[in-house]
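Morning. Coffee machine broken again, so started the prediction first thing and wrote up yesterday's gels while waiting. Chain of 347 residues, entered below exactly as on the submission form.
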Amino acid sequence: MNTPVYPVRWQNDRVLLIDQNRLPNEYTYVEIDLVEDMARAISTMIVRGAPAIGVAAAYGMYLGAKEITTTDRDEFLTQLVTIGKTLRATRPTAVNLFWAIDRMEATARNCAGTVAEIIPQLLVAAQQINADDIATCQAIGAHGLKVLPSSPDKLCLLTHCNAGALATAGYGTALGVVRSAWTQGRLARIYADETRPRLQGARLTSWECVQEGIPVTVIADSMAAHCMKQGLIDAVVVGADRIAANGDAANKIGTYSLALVAKAHNIPFFVAAPRSTIDFSLHDGSGIPIEERHPSELYQIGDTIVCPPGVEFYNPAFDVTPAHLIQAIITEFGAFPPTEIIDLKNR
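Came back before lunch.
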């Protein structure tokens, strides 16, 4: 690819977001300079993917801070928390969103200066979150490469949804592992589930791979078991939006069924995510909130209605894969069996 993909960029005192709803047909940016617009961009999935949402929210906190007019420090901090609540409400499952907002609020509280001195520090903090996420994804890619099957020499991997550069500040988590395998000559092909209902695999993962010349084959979600039975898949690598302390992992709907069929075919199943995706306050996945999205994602494809009037709909955006189906959780600190991620709590 000629230019790396950065879905969230700070430029000329505003945020540039790749409009992921328009990919792959249009590669365009949305300019954001108000926190209200950032909240809308997150909720409408102009920006999506847990790490990218966290980065976008961090910039959103800075934009919101600039809109606060008071010079009273305590009142400023109170209004900043209110801005944080607005951003927290946009995507309830992605824990990186809450982590980034917590970090921005802590930055403001810990800055001993005036309001005028706090605001620039919030931009510094957001830019640091942005840079750290790119470095984190590169580390995840390197650690993931180490735990992939040693045979065959060139692997065929399967992924679900999009956990690539578009879902992070750059490089990607699950696709970071894929990229590392590709650059090191270990990848033969990546199979990408189309990922109904929003088709992030078909639209976004395949687009990223085509940009870099990585061999990619898109399959329907329902084809995964057949492909495994045919011996086409050597390992599965997916991302996560929230991981409980015991290793249960929430990811895009369809991930749980993919883990089940991988287990049935004795194929290793990996989750790649930064430590910030682990929610140590949750003992297990039963406490992870599951976002439900508008039924139009199910009954409409483009401008075409595919269901008859009178049908009812259920549209959870995520499901939770139990820890016992996951071989390892790949983080920037290394790859760990789910039972051992609790050791990362104080990292």
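The mean pLDDT is 96. Going to sketch it on the whiteboard this afternoon.
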